[in-house]
Amino acid sequence: MMPDLRPLSPELRSIAAEELNEVEERVPADLAALRDWLAKQPYLKARQDDQFLVGFLRGCKFSLEKTKSKLDHFYTIKTLMPELFGSRGVDEKNLTLLRTGTYVRLPKPWGPGGPRLQLTNYEKFDPKQFKLLDLFRYQTMMSEQAIREDDNSNISGYVEIIDMAKLSLSFLAQLDFTLIKRMGVFAEKAQPTRLKGVHLINCPKEGVALLNLAKSLMPSKLQQRFHVYKNLEQLSQVIPIEYLPEEYGGSNGRIADIQAEAEKQLLSYKEYFAEDSQYGVDERLRPGKRVDADSIFGVEGSFRKLDID
Predict the structure, then answer these.
(1) Domain 92-268 class, CATH top level
(2) Is 298 helix (H, G, I), strand (E, B) or coil?
């Protein structure tokens, strides 16, 4: 039976074949093998639609063993972090955060077969109203939509551009380093789309030390993908301005329009996120050694809240 998948553009099709070992004729058998394995894991309840599972196969370059591990981590970490993943409804809080335009996925990727570009801008992010946890929660909802909707992201990865010009110091003061560390582990071990780079611009001098601390908590593979630039001009030598939105002098959409489109899409996922609680892991049923936060995230010391003079 042919899987129910979106056809790929010619550029992405050739990248999937050359870089991800995707063989079109073999995909149905790969999906069947994965479902067969899932059926034998009493502790793990996962979504099983074709487009979702193929996102994991692509993220693991079609290695079945790696895909199993990634799916397991995806649901294990979600179950271990109910404060973030247990309350992901399409609710007023997420819609209000969406409407601030703090985090947008830009319509044009970085070249036809290139990675998806995502932009964070803290200008309208009010730390009295939102915490870092709220932003991460919203970002995971976006990235989960991308597993099913965004072929560029699934095949060529994604790049984060973070503009810190309007970052408020009270937001820096409430940074939660345990959470940042856990999200780094999630990005590396659980998320099927691959993070190709984090480009930070306009970092306030008070933020540099905190940024270095946050970076040091990331898995080493991700640490190498962090790049810091003084300003937009420096960034544009790496990512041409045309790939940024109009507000940044580029031609990659207007943030207000991108936001309106993202809102329509998020509303269409209302049911998806409402069903989410039925998926996850039940450690009591896991054969062999049970998994807990220490075994996934490493032993976490407590990070004191940092004093910023």
Answers:
(1) alpha beta
(2) coil
Amino acid at 187: A
DSSP classification of residue 303: P
User: How is residue 304 written in tokens?
Assistant: 């004191």
Give the Cα-Cα-Cα angle 49, 55, 57 (nearest 5 degrees): 100
The CATH 3.40.525.10 domain(s) of the chain lie at 92-268
**Alpha-carbon separation of residue 22 from 27, 34, 56, 127, 256 (angstroms):** 7, 15, 12, 44, 37
- The end-to-end CA distance of the chain, in Å, is 63
Cα torsion for 275, 278, 279, 284, to the nearest 10°?
170
Nearest to 179 by CA among 207, 144, 140: 140
**Any residues with CB less than 8 A from the CB of 174 and at least 6 apart, and which?**
127, 131, 132, 305
Q: Record the pTM.
A: 0.93
β-bridge mates for residue 201, sequence order: 163, 229
CB atoms within 10 A of CB 289: 8
Report pLDDT digits (tens) over 101-143: 999 999 999 999 999 999 999 989 999 999 999 999 999 999 9
Q: Which residues contact 67 (CB under 8 A, 6 or more apart)?
A: 34, 56, 57, 59, 60
Quote the pLDDT of residue 309: 39
Cα 285 to Cα 264: distance, rounded to the nearest angstrom: 39
- Single out the residue of 245, 250, 4, 9 nearest to residue 113, CA to CA: 9
CB within 8 A of 14, min separation 6: which ones? 113
Estimate the crossing angle of helix 27-39 against helix 50-59, to 10 degrees: 100
